[in-house]
């Protein structure tokens, strides 16, 4: 349909726009922050929760020592309070901004935690609290914002982490892949075929 074609065009445009919005040195600085941090917390609520989960998963494959912040039983405030000033908080959000994400990010900033904001505007409350800012566009022709570019930006950031991390990152990735093979984490053709 025409609406579908428009949405696909906007999604592609959002991803293409990442190059203009994020200079290579900005991506490098953000990657170095993640590599230097003793621990990395990932934060994103509502539509950005999947982006935070994606970032945390890729980080776990490359570095480890990262965790996804949630608000189970109202414990987000306590989780933020435990972040030391050698931690990094990756805060992900777009307008309209989740109150939980904004307030948690501001609290972490006041504690001296470095903030890497992945957000939709330099004027976003996440960007204003951040040490490093990476931007994406969320234009959509539908009733929801598009987070395709946010996911692409996370992948670009983690590619930079892998490039900057050197041998240590490569060794961890190999170890994780070996563990996944050893524990049969992936399905292989011919398994579970009906009638066999």
Helix-strand layout with pairing:
Layout: H1 2-16, H2 18-21, H3 24-36, E1 39-43, H4 49-62, E2 66-68, H5 76-81, E3 87-93, H6 99-110, E4 114-119, H7 125-128, E5 132-135, H8 148-182
Parallel strand pairs: 1-2, 1-3, 3-4, 4-5
Helix pairs in contact: 1-8, 3-8, 4-8
Uncertain runs with pLDDT below 50, 5 residues or more? none
Strand order of the largest sheet: 2-1-3-4-5
The portion of residues assigned to helices is 40-55%
Write down the secondary-structure element order.
HHHEHEHEHEHEH
Main beta-sheet strand count, sense and barrel state: 5 strands, parallel
Beta-strand content estimate: 5-15%
Nutshell version of this structure?
With about 200 residues, this protein is of the alpha/beta class. The protein has 8 helices and 5 strands; from the N terminus they run αααβαβαβαβαβα. A 5-stranded parallel β-sheet has the order 2-1-3-4-5, with helices on both faces.
Task: Give an overview in words.
- With about 200 residues, this protein is α/β, with parallel strands linked by helices.
- About 55% of the residues lie in helices and about 15% in strands.
- The protein has eight helices and five strands.
- It has helices at about 1-15, 20, 25-35, 50-60, 75-80, 100-110, 125-130, 150-180, and strands at about 40-45, 65-70, 85-95, 115-120, 130-135.
- It has a five-stranded parallel sheet, with helices on both faces.
- Helix 6 (about 100-110) links the parallel strand 3 (about 85-95) and strand 4 (about 115-120).
- Helix 1 (about 1-15) packs across helix 8 and helix 4 (about 50-60) packs across helix 8.
- The longest helix is centred in the last third of the chain and has 35 residues, at about 150-180.
- The N and C termini lie far apart (about 40 Å).
- The mean pLDDT is about 90.
